[in-house]
Amino acid sequence: MIPVGYRNKLLVIRLDKKKSEEKPIKTSLGRELIGGKGFGAYFLLKYTKKNMDPFDPSNVLIMASGPLNATKVPIASKLGFFFKSPMTNGYGESYVGGSIPKYPKWIGYDVVIITGKAPKPTYIIISDEGVEFIDAKELWGKTTIETDNILKKRHGKNISVACIGPAGERMVRYACICIDKWRQAGRCGAGAVMGSKNLKAIIFTGEGDYVDPANPVEFEGLLGELWEKIRESKGVKRLREYGTSAMVPVANEMGFFPTKYWTHGTLDKWENIGPESIKSILIRPNPCWNCPIACGRYIRINTRWGEIEIDGPEYETIYAMGGLFCVDKLEDLVYLNYLADAFGMDTITLGNILGLAVEASKRGKIKLEIDYGNINMAVNLIKMIAYRKDIG
Ligand code: SF4
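Above: the input record for the complex with iron/sulfur cluster. Below: its predicted structure, written as tokens.
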């Protein structure tokens, strides 16, 4: 039986040759492998060499998703990036939501593999009409937010933009890929791999179409049941009201909120960066495509650096930049989150680095005066890391 939920095609994009090629995927693979992760691991092994440096041009950046993605099933709203990780020198994966996950399958591919290194800064547009390679000279050096704004102005709003910032360009090993400004494929250094390929941005566009189910009648019935369950779920209501910040009180009350570089389990004044504080500055919940939960928080806040609007902070950012570095003012936390997103760095690793820097500084291991909650020093250090200057 032909597995459904898939297109049974992959797209290989060769940046050095400015070429793309469509290839069939054996229909049995969809049954043998487990979803997008299975495809990602399978093609990573197949397309890379043993002992390859993660920044070697032959490293690949793979995008893949599972059988429910691009169907009408709600919350199946994630796209996986797979690559050899510059963080671990091993298998790397990072998942992201936003508007991008549906696109590869909508335009006809279960898997997109990007390989090679562009001879100069480039961005690509992937659509049902093929792949376009465009000079990105004037985008190089721009933040992720600037890049997204420029590309949407140039190519229209009906696109999804995945781009890197200055950190990815400089191959900071935990650089992330930012999707439509506010969603990040943050883990394992996917943005650094993109930077090593001179690839500033990937744009997806196209009308696309849902992937058909094997049994449409049964499928519609199950969809109805699923929507009912989602509507009734208390967990969903809480996530919709507070986003992932709902975890902050739970973690603090139970004593497992990562604090002071993993030495404490509760942050004094955690309420300042907790769910009620974030709710007080909420503009609107921000959903990924086809997700009724809408856990994303689009917020606005006045800071000493000016008014900031972002989607965030998520629980992981709250504990990493708030807990581990002991930031208990919401405006400061939001600003650190904003800088990480704009420069294109993973907030979880960056928060860990800030805490590590404090402990290393105390022990005289680094020449940097920094202490917990010292925002000005954190801002300086983040800039040094993003631009790989001085100790960064
Ligand atoms: S909005 Fe939240 S719950 Fe829904 S897919 Fe995105 S990250 Fe997941």
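Notes for the reader.
The pocket of iron/sulfur cluster is lined by residues 75, 77, 97, 287-288, 291, 293-296 (CB under 6 Å).
The two ends are 54 Å apart (CA to CA).
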